[in-house]
TrEMBL record:
SUPFAM superfamilies: CRAL/TRIO domain, Supernatant protein factor (SPF), C-terminal domain. This is CRAL-TRIO domain-containing protein. SMART domains: SEC14 (SM00516). Residues 18-174 form the CRAL-TRIO domain. Residues 190-301 form the GOLD domain. PANTHER family: SEC14 RELATED PROTEIN, SEC14-LIKE PROTEIN 2. GO terms for cellular component: cytoplasm.
Length: 314
């Protein structure tokens, strides 16, 4: 419930407006419901330029467009190694989406159909070790034989909820059988959409957070009311970040733990420290199964009243 409140999931449809690049090139959409009245999402994964989207929008925006789905059709037509060779970024994003579904919505993912999937084996073999057994049991995988997968879809979904191209009767107002007004056709994302973040390494220190691990920096606050300021970015890949106040053996959250797209743009922020003592800045890469993250950072403490600045020295 805390995660849902933090990310405003309950009001997502009313409050969230996806970036233009996702609205145009994210090849997924809801077409209706299945026979148990669960929402139906169709994703033309093979038609999606996942690399282009991850270079053009915050990963959080991408994930927010696909949380809380129930019955899903993954159309892998057009899928190739390019979908998983953008270093491990594309795979990590897919795994993060899977982890959100399993941990935050454990009973809401009812059924997953993977169709046109003869080249899907490599990606699935990378994901399968990290999937809960319940999730594995919900996945049905079909090759290019449309007569077989259409029959499977129609066993769970009424024809009027499916586009004609998937065995249903639904079309666009202009007769398009792919229902592109509901489910986009993807395509290559133009480079004009790519985010152009050029971080400044001046006066920044650097270290590497190993895969599956975290680093914590302890900062001594000598005067109540001091300002703790941070500025950091990673070479590639997101990183979770949090700030705590240390009280005896307890870490009291001051800035909530959250994954930050600091590879897309630098993360800057500050807090007022109302108590003296030790504050802990945490860089967390424990969720990353594939790679370490190199981080450039600066942490500064300064006093509101006398305005003297004290850079943090690890």
């Amino acid at each position: 419930m805390e995660w849902r409140h933090q990310h405003k999931i309950n009001t997502l449809l009313d409050d969230f407006t996806p970036p233009e690049v996702l609205a145009k090139y994210f090849s997924a959409g809801y077409t209706g419901v299945d026979k148990l009245n669960s929402s139906l999402l169709i994703t033309r994964f093979g038609a999606m330029d996942l690399k282009g989207m991850l270079l053009s929008a915050k990963k959080r925006d991408y994930l927010m467009t696909v949380v809380e789905v129930m019955t899903v059709i993954f159309d892998m037509a057009g899928f190739s190694m390019r979908h998983i060779t953008f270093k491990p970024v594309a795979v990590e994003t897919t795994l993060q989406l899977l982890q959100i579904s399993e941990s935050k919505y454990p009973e809401l993912l009812r059924c997953v159909f993977v169709i046109n999937a003869q080249d899907f084996a490599i990606l699935y073999s990378m994901m399968k070790p990290f999937m809960h057994e319940k999730t594995k049991n919900k996945v049905q995988i079909y090759s290019h034989d449309s007569s077989i997968w259409k029959a499977a879809l129609l066993a769970e979904i009424d024809r009027d909820q499916l586009p004609v191209c998937y065995g249903g009767t639904m079309t666009d107002p202009d007769g398009n059988l792919n229902c592109v007004t509901k489910v986009g056709m993807g395509g290559e994302v133009p480079r004009s959409y790519y985010l152009d973040a050029k971080p400044d390494p001046t006066n920044k220190k650097t270290f590497t957070v190993s895969r599956g691990s975290k680093e914590q920096l302890e900062i001594q606050i000598k005067q109540a009311g001091a300002i703790l300021k941070w500025d950091f970015y990673t070479e590639e890949g997101d990183l979770a970040f949090a700030v705590y106040r240390k009280k005896d053996d307890e870490l009291i959250p001051i800035v909530s733990h959250d994954r930050i797209d600091c590879d897309v743009s630098p993360e800057e922020g500050e807090i007022r420290c109302d108590y003296t003592g030790v504050y802990v800045v945490e860089f967390d890469n424990s969720y990353s199964y594939f790679r370490s993250k190199k981080i450039w950072f600066s942490i500064t403490v300064y006093n509101e009243r006398i305005e003297n600045t004290e850079p943090f020295q690890p």
